[in-house]
Amino acid sequence: MNRGLFITATDTEVGKTFICGAITAALKGRGIYVGVVKPVASGGVYSSAGKLLSEDATFLMAAAGLGEDRRQAVNPVCLLPALTPAVAAIESGVTINTGLLENACRAMLAASEITLIEGVGGITAPIWQDYLVADSILALGLPAVIVARPNLGTINHTVLTAAYARQRGIKLAGIIINRWDEEQVTVLERSNLAYIERLTGLPVLGKFPSVSEVKQDRQAMEQLGKMAEQHLAMDRLIDLMSGGTDDASS
Ligand SMILES: Nc1ncnc2c1ncn2[C@@H]1O[C@H](COP(=O)(O)OP(=O)(O)OP(=O)(O)O)[C@@H](O)[C@H]1O
Ligand SMILES: [Mg+2]
Predict the structure, then answer these.
(1) Closest-CA residue to 180 (of 129, 231, 138)
(2) How confident is the model at residue 247, as a pLDDT?
(3) Residue 204 lies in a domain
(4) What's the CATH code of the domain at 145?
(5) Residue 221 domain boundaries
């Protein structure tokens, strides 16, 4: 059986890549052969060699220890405009073949012990025409984790994301709160956490702190993996990747 997890979030810039990288590094630290996929990226940057690259894919490849030769398999489509992929593609004169994106994920799932897949934006971000991130999660049949912010506005974003996912029939593994800084949290963050748990009925699978600097060298990735072991429910996440879900409503 192909083991995998889809990482979505309540919004863009919430920490999908960072958390996906941290889980990947932790799995690698356990000696697991981990695959990563960022099926489609926008807001790509040109390398010094003039190649359009996804920085998210670069980070995930560093976390998984995959070389540059695997870039196409990790990130088959990278677009320049920092727009939702469906619009970035039109602006770039590109047609996105969603079947090709799904197949890239399936190929990585087949070739790896565990594969982590990062979406774009939030769960309803359009990838091509009316095909949304949610459609790719459903096509792959993987459980999804929602990465959420701890601060003001997060109850609404997280509850709506979970409700939409359930309405679409997506299996939800749980929620990870990113940038939870224990020594700084107040009644705001604590009550957000309590409400999110109560209103979604989903488990919070970890609260990841802020780090002072995000680096990509091997040592920094090992450290990130250790932080994931410390702050995330890694054993439970691995169980969920194998097909289980704690979502009572699914
Ligand atoms: N816990 C953290 N500590 C410090 N920096 C963080 C943390 N989480 C995320 N960041 C930084 O915040 C920024 C946004 O995070 P990230 O790129 O993971 O978000 P994303 O949800 O993947 O965004 P996108 O929708 O663009 O893919 C990045 O610069 C990342 O390095
Ligand atoms: Mg990202």
Answers:
(1) 231
(2) 61
(3) yes
(4) 3.40.50.300
(5) 3-37+98-241
Find out whether the beta carbon of 179 lies less than 6 Å from any atom of ligand 1.
yes
CA 1 to ligand 1 centroid distance, Å: 31
Output the CA torsion sign for 104, 106, 112, 114.
positive
Q: Which ligand is nearest to the CA of 212?
A: 1
Token duo for residue 110: 């087949």
Amino acid, single-letter form, for residue 206: G
In a domain, 73, yes or no: no
Ligand nearest to the CA of 16: 1
Tally of structural domains, the chain: 1
Looking at residue 242, its pLDDT comes to: 80
**Cα 38 to ligand 2 centre (Å):** 8
Ligand 1 atom at minimum distance from 12 CA: 25
Distance 178 CA to ligand 1 centre (A): 9
Residues of the chain with pLDDT under 70: 1, 243-250
At 34, the amino acid letter reads V
